[in-house]
């Protein structure tokens, strides 16, 4: 388990110099234990202590990164068995399977779905992450050609799949710069595949028939100098996959280093029924899989998986929040209404949805209330006149509109007077208390007289 604040404090210099931005070393240690501070912020900690803390506080499941740039996928780094104990750290990577035996048309269609199945939800962008490229042809040149094609048409992270080290070597010549995940090292090819991983600096999958075999294989790879390892238990049944994922997580939390790595699950090999596969994938996301490889992406099954992943990998100790700013809905212009709400994601989702239903183009100002709803934020003093007015002045909405009408939620009606004092050039309108009434309100909306530039 991770070190406690007191255990970390014992290793700190105890000078209470405050140079880390925290008044005392004990307070700094508590923040380190909670993952809210970086050890490098302490200017007086020794290199020896840094090494000790880095080793002792390393997460039970090693974190690693696949790919480069903005589409790189980080997995692992997990520290708990259940989300409510703290949080899950790095979302499951979702990959689409592409075989080098597929036709050019099918490959193009899958790349298109990988690139274009992108969704906006509660202010977040949800999309799949990876392409799993499999050498079913057994031909190195054919496999390299597939990798080159996918690489040229998508910036996604890659998994290259073959148990033939020579084929993997041919693939890596094409895509080593993208730092793909190499699949897979087995008892039969471990030395050759390990050499490829060391030469290119790419992460590698350890695949075995049993957990004992996998543990021995990860030990062998670790001794050869490899640290970025992913585990595949090669389970072909739902029950076996479920049991394996739970056993590996429990063993890793118990400091069994040979199993302290993220996992990959091929739901594409467990069923031919796309809907059953989506169900298996939902289990894999909930029960610890670092990567899930699907046979294909379809919007009706992919979107629920992306939403599930979003919900599971949010911090349960923090409200889900939307980014503060101006949201343009329906293509508004200089005469469009301006509404205000809080940044609690559910509030934003409901309010923006009702604005879309109204078919009236609008500007929606989302005020940062630390993820609290309108009523809760108002009660906490985070959605009151003296907090709202600076946001309205600085957000840039005045450059987008001619009028000066601001529609505030009905639940914040008591702030209208204060806002008129804080924003003397604006007319404050009290909108509906319930979001369901927004469409009717907007269809009858007209700027108040005297609220123009």
Itemize the secondary structure elements and their pairings.
Layout: H1 5-9, H2 25-33, H3 47-56, E1 64-66, E2 73-75, E3 93-99, H4 104-116, E4 119-121, E5 124-126, E6 130-134, H5 140-153, E7 157-161, H6 165-175, E8 181-185, H7 190-200, E9 204-207, H8 211-223, E10 229-232, H9 238-253, E11 264-266, H10 274-286, E12 291-294, H11 299-312, E13 325-329, E14 338-342, H12 345-358, E15 362-367, H13 374-379, H14 385-394, E16 405-408, H15 416-422, E17 427-430, H16 438-443
Describe the 3D structure.
By secondary structure, this protein is α/β, with parallel strands linked by helices. Helix content is 38%, strand content 16%. It has helices at residues 5-9, 25-33, 47-56, 104-116, 140-153, 165-175, 190-200, 211-223, 238-253, 274-286, 299-312, 345-358, 374-379, 385-394, 416-422, 438-443, and strands spanning 64-66, 73-75, 93-99, 119-121, 124-126, 130-134, 157-161, 181-185, 204-207, 229-232, 264-266, 291-294, 325-329, 338-342, 362-367, 405-408, 427-430.
Number of helices: 16
Which range best describes the helical content: under 10%, 10-25%, 25-40%, 40-55%, 55-70% or over 70%?
Answer: 25-40%
Runs in which pLDDT lies below 50 for 5 or more consecutive residues are: none
Strand tally is: 17
Assign the CATH class of the largest domain. Answer: Alpha Beta
CATH architecture of the largest domain: Alpha-Beta Barrel
Q: What overall form do the CA principal axes indicate?
A: globular
Class from helix and strand fractions: alpha/beta
* Strand residue percentage: 15-25%
Write out the strand line-up for the largest beta sheet, numbering strands in chain order: 10-9-8-7-6-3-12-11
CATH superfamily of the largest domain: Dihydropteroate synthase-like
């Amino acid at each position: 388990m991770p070190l406690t604040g007191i255990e970390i404090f014992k290793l700190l210099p105890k000078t209470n110099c405050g140079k880390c931005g925290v008044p005392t070393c004990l307070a700094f240690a508590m923040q380190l234990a909670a993952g809210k501070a970086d050890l490098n912020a302490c200017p007086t900690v020794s290199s020896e202590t840094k090494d000790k803390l880095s080793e002792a506080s390393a997460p039970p499941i090693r974190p690693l990164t696949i790919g480069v740039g903005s589409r790189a996928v980080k997995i692992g780094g997990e520290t708990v068995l259940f989300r409510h104990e703290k949080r899950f750290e790095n979302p499951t990577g979702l990959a689409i399977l592409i075989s080098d035996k597929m036709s050019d048309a099918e490959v193009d269609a899958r790349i298109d779905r990988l690139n274009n199945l992108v969704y906006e939800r509660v202010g977040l962008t949800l999309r799949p992450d990876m392409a799993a490229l499999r050498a079913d042809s057994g031909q190195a040149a054919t496999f390299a050609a597939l990798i080159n094609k996918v690489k040229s048409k998508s910036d996604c992270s890659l998994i290259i799949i073959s148990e033939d080290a020579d084929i993997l070597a041919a693939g890596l010549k094409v895509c080593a710069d993208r730092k793909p995940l190499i699949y897979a090292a087995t008892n039969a090819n471990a030395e050759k595949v390990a050499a490829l991983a060391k030469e290119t600096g790419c992460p590698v999958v350890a695949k075995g028939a049993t957990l004992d075999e996998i543990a021995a294989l990860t030990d062998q790879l670790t001794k050869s100098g490899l640290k970025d390892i992913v585990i595949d238990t090669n389970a072909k049944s739902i029950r076996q996959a479920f049991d394996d994922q739970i056993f590996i997580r429990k063993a890793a939390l118990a400091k069994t280093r040979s199993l302290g790595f993220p996992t990959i699950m091929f739901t594409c090999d467990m069923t031919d029924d796309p809907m059953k596969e989506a169900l298996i994938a939902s289990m894999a996301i909930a029960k610890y899989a670092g990567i899930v490889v699907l046979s294909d992406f379809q919007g009706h099954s992919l979107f629920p998986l992306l939403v599930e992943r979003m919900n599971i990998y949010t911090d349960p100790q923090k409200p889900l929040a939307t980014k503060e700013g101006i949201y343009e809905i329906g293509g508004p212009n200089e005469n469009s209404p301006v509404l205000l709400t809080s940044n609690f994601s559910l509030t934003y989702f409901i309010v923006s949805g009702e604005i879309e239903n109204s078919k009236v183009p609008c500007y929606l100002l989302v005020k940062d209330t630390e993820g609290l709803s309108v009523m809760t934020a108002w009660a906490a003093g985070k959605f009151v006149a003296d907090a709202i007015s600076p946001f309205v002045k600085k957000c840039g909405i005045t450059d987008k509109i001619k009028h000066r009408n601001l529609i505030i939620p009905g639940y914040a009606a008591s702030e209208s007077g204060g806002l008129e004092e804080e924003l003397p050039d604006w007319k404050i309108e009290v909108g509906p208390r319930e979001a369901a009434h927004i469409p009717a309100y907007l269809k009858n909306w007209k700027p108040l007289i005297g609220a123009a530039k």
